[in-house]
Amino acid sequence: MATTTLVANKLRSSLTMLGIIIGNASVIAMVGIGQGTQKLATEQFQSLGTNVLFIVPGNQDAQRNRGDIPKTLVLADAQAIANLVPSISEVAPQIQTRQPVTYSNKNTNTQIIGATPEFLAVRSFDIATGRFISELDLQQSNQVVVLGSDLASKLFGDRNPIGERIRIKNISFSVIGVTLPKGSSFGNNQDDTAFIPLTTVANRIVGRTSPYGVEISFISVSAKNAESLGAAEFQITNLLRLRHKIISEDDFTVRNQKDALQIANTVTGALTMMLAAIAGISLLVGGIGVMNIMLVSVTERTQEIGLRKAIGATQGDILFQFLIEAIILSAVGGIVGTLLGIGSISLISLLTPLKAAVSPVVVIVAVSVSGGIGLFFGVVPARRAAKLDPIVALRSA
Asked: Exposed (0-12), middle (13-18) or buried (19+): which is 55, by Cβ within 10 Å?
């Protein structure tokens, strides 16, 4: 009977469900976007390499007392870490700059990375064709270059660039390899990059050689495993403090990829909860809407209630009927809202790099909560209908 009544009043039933539909769609979409953001952050950190520490020069709050020691990280620091820190497997010092790159009549301004042979293993890059920078290239400061996949396409299209010569800062370089696509990381396109021997960049491109040695932009360090990250960070910090003769604040910063990932996950998780809570408020408002329209329905159907009681329906029968109507309205609204929410996050995934997704558990919880809201907010109108006196109800009709 409850279903028949709802179907007979399609417009009113649809308007009653509208708040629940909007609320549930909002919850599903917000949770999906939050989980997609968390997944994207995890993928971007993992694209930088696994079990990686980043050592960068400088410390904003440093109060240093170092005498005549180097003011930046130098290549010797990276070599000391490689030789003296037992918890690491590879060390990859880097120099980064942006320079104009030219081939034939094609020009572009791209990221240049001065790298060592260890860069591939530490940063999890792979070679598509040709080879990467060798130890001999490093020792002889050879004018060779490895192109990222996007840069190779930009300059050479579908042609094989191996053996071709390009100009970087008006210096000729021979192309020796192309990397496999790596994707973007925190807005930085890792495939629009040219890799050159670190010593060549220091000596020929940016002149990063000081009295203390070759100054570098930062050092990437790969720990032996995830469990060694803490030990590696401790050992590297102590070694660099000793080398730089630091007696107060560090003049460098060690960034732990795992900690950064945990912070990112905590932040995105908190944002997800906040967005879900905000969306949950609209679900609550939808429940209040169900209650109000059900109260109006009780008033409009006073004659029906009176007739049912007059022919023998108990208070429990009336209570049950209105409760069932409220639950059906909320549950159907919850299902429709869930479908709309899933459709929204599918559209977002299709149109943006954000791979929004929502787990089946969230869907089940959202539909159950919407049904529960119908039960909760349906009690008041159902009790009012159940307590109507049949004689008074028939007279008032």
From this structure: buried
